[in-house]
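U., I forgot to send this yesterday:
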Amino acid sequence: MRFSLAWLREHLEGDTPAAEMSDRLTAAGMNVELQEPAGDDLIWDVDVTANRPDAMNHRGLAREAAAAGCGTLKPLVHEVPEGATPIGKLAKLTVEDAACCPRYCARVVRGVKVGPSPAWLATRLERCGIRPINNIVDATNCVLLDVGHPLHAFDLPLLAGSEIRVRRARAGEPIQTLDGVARALTPEDLVIADGARAVAVAGVMGAANTEIGPATRDVLIESAYFDPRSVRRTARRLGLSTEASHRFERGADRAMARSAVDLAAELIVRLAGGEVAAGVLDSAPELLAPRTIAFSLERLSAFAGCEIPRDFVVRTLSALELAPQVAGDTVTCTVPRHRVDLELPEDLYEEVLRHFGYENVPSALPAFAVKPGERLGSWPLTERARDALVAAGAAEAFTYSFASHELESATAASPLADRGEVVTLENPLSARLAVMRRSLLAGLVEAAGGNLRRGAERVLLGEVGRVFFARGAEIAEEERLALALAGTVGAWDAVRQADFLDLKGVLEVVLAELGVNDPVWRPSTVPLLAPGEGAEVLAGHRVVAVAGRLADPVAEAFDLPAPLWVAELDLAAAEAGQVPTSRSLPRFPAVTADLTMRHELSLSYAELLAAVRAAGSEWLEDVSPVVRYRGEGVGADEVKTTLRLVYRHPERSLTQDEVNAAHFTLMDTLARRLAVSFQ
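Result:
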């Protein structure tokens, strides 16, 4: 934020050198980042933090300079020459929404002559980054930069009924703001209206239908206090950031509303002539008593770790206009209305210490008792899940818990996401982050697509995180694990495109690491996945995961450049599962034997595997697929599947005759139970 040093000095008694003042302000937290000569002036670029709207003006920064020992702050003096005509005969004020507009002040100046501002004012505004417009508008901007309170000037005859009405906008109510853009408003927006239409978006920007022009003769000056949340919500929705909204949404000074309108009226008469009507339209002239905060001097010194002199505390807080009253060890401060950031005793500690100098506070690590830590809630489960992703070879991704309506809906078409309604944010950062995700795929698919578009040949991403559901008045959260696979797989000399079996293998590793035993795979018809290329995974009788190729309509919504295989797992299935345990290495050799079966195509691998394990002998240690053949010599509705069986006895070596007998017994049982043949 740009400040004029000459302007700052108008608020200070004293002649502290510029270099010393900038150093002291920087040490007190008002970082002077750049100093630029401008004629006989010096322009400072000062980093004012968002919680300090009181310092976003020349008087506020001068107050900080006075507290830092750079002179004394001059009193704010203004005198408005009023005419005989009461303002009540010229304009009328009605505030319909006092919650969003706790105070609205207005003055009327008649008989002005609109023209260019004098050189001193135009130069002053330009040096602070504001383009001069005319003497009326420039006067309001000058007061804004001087004391920090936004103002707006209306052409009074253009206000229907000479009336100001502060109200909520009507649904779809149109307004063309001063930037020339036509906008549609909502009932969430607060507007300044006349007797017929909206003439300004409250706290953000005025409308073109009442702007000051060369023909303007009578001016109504607005000076108000608007609720910061209302201004922030409207400015963000409209995509407008103005000097006014920048201050109102951080918190303006309710008491300054009256002083600012007086200063503006006085300056307008000085620049453009005219007569100020008698009185002020003020919706809330009586202000609530200011807050007080008390703290202990002893606790302040204990907090700092060194002795903070009482006199220094009182002097600093007095310079900041906090009116400290000392009674023994207790200091009670009256918080001025421009300090919206002060709420706790610790806030006053900061005010004292930043002027005391952090370099004067000793550096010491706090002492604390060390005891064994304990991870509560879902931490143990999610850590196991992240370890499982690493074991499966996936790179872990972290995506936003928010998504757009469109992408969230596209990825919520599965049994895991159909557990509640979508959670819509009341005040989203943008339309792309408008709702809470019901599936991790809302962000993971976008991340995978970004990698593919940037030339990645192979993508295997995994994420562990929470999803959110609206269930009546409650918001429910569940833990999930998701995978996204695309591109090529295989060794360098056998590269091929990833397919369903690759995804299934990765997910099986994850399931095994999480202790989900004997999962059952079955075909799925969920809209999230492409027809015929998706599966559901069951543990017990409950669907715990979905896996397959992302359906084409969903892929188009994400603008994916290549097919993407995805999976999502409900981590609640792992909570009941058995954590994998270690076992001793076998002492005796295994005997392997392949088994080739001809069976109907409708018989799934999961059913076949379950039958082999159920019918196998107690020595059957492992079963794995070798090949699945369809072609010459096999019927159109048949398939040949070859399995590799591993036999092992835990206490001795098996003989070939024992293995053959167990193998033939297994074949006989399978032939009877599944109607398979071994031709």
